[in-house]
Specification:
This protein has helices at 4-15, 21-30, 41-53, 74-81, 99-108, 123-131, 133-142, 146-154, 163-171, 177-188, 196-203; strands at residues 34-38, 63-67, 89-95, 116-119. With 205 residues, the chain is α/β, with parallel strands linked by helices. The protein is elongated and about 50 Å long.
Length: 205
């Protein structure tokens, strides 16, 4: 059976100027009906983790989750996957600062602003607020990153910063850390703690 990673690769190639044939063929084989547009891989890690927690196989449901490498690409990806391209229904998750790009991109591709789920600052901010800083620090300790976390806290630039903001900064200071913790923090949520934008996204697909 066709693989969702192969579909994502085909879409990325198409977005970079390649042919549309491979993506179109894979979309048909996978029986896709909905495309979820994400800014990047840390959002994908959270979505994948929540899908696993809820026992949902998004690919089997005809849902493709596509990290675009930044919100500035949403217009192009929406055009390829939405009504002008493959004809999939569009939805997405974004940071509040990027909403204008999502609104414009989805509307131009036949989507709706109502299908854009917006995080208050970003997804890491939502997850930290949902769990609370103490529980997030427990996860950091369990992952063996306590020393790195304490080092950041001692830096003069961060000493007077609220703990919540320090944690957001920590997740972005090392390549791959946001991706790893995007999944870990999501896995730690109880059912009633799932942030509204992420919960709303799942309700819409």
């Amino acid at each position: 059976m066709a693989d969702m990673w192969a579909f994502r690769d085909a879409v990325n190639g198409w977005a970079a100027g390649g042919p549309n044939g491979p993506a179109s063929e894979l979309a048909e084989q996978l029986r896709l009906r909905t495309a979820v547009l994400l800014e990047g891989p840390s959002d994908l890690a959270a979505v994948d983790a929540l899908a696993a927690r809820r026992g949902r196989d998004l690919a089997a449901e005809g849902v493709c989750v596509v990290p675009m490498g930044g919100a500035m690409s949403v217009g192009r990806y929406a055009g390829l996957l939405g009504a002008p391209g493959l004809g999939l229904r569009l939805t997405g998750l974004c940071d509040v600062g990027e909403r204008r790009f999502y609104d414009r991109g989805l509307e131009r591709a036949g989507g709706s602003r109502q299908d854009v789920h917006v995080c208050a600052a970003d997804l890491e901010d939502e997850l930290i607020r949902a769990l609370g800083t103490e529980r997030v620090e427990e996860i950091i300790r369990g992952e063996g990153d306590l020393r790195a976390w304490q080092t950041l806290q001692r830096q003069p630039a961060h000493q007077d910063t609220p703990r919540h903001q320090q944690l957001r900064r920590f997740f972005g200071t090392k390549k791959g850390r946001k991706i790893r913790y995007g999944g870990l923090l999501t896995e730690a949520l109880s059912p009633g703690e799932v942030p509204a934008p992420l919960d709303g996204l799942f309700a819409s697909v």
